[in-house]
Amino acid sequence: MSAQELRSKTPDQLRDELVALKKEAFNLRFRQATNQLDNTARMRAVRRDVARIKTVLNEMAAQAAAN
Q: What does the record list as coiled-coil region(s) (predicted)?
């Protein structure tokens, strides 16, 4: 998911996506601890998607505060 796609969403949609990604990250960590994780690269992708969403949300908040 690109930052440009995220900027076109509303803050509520971004927060919902953030919750879903955090749940997925928890499940991936759990599966890794029990040696059931097949695609270890997915953990990195989820972490980066979470960071992207947080960055876009902070940009939106800063823009709203500036106006």
A: none
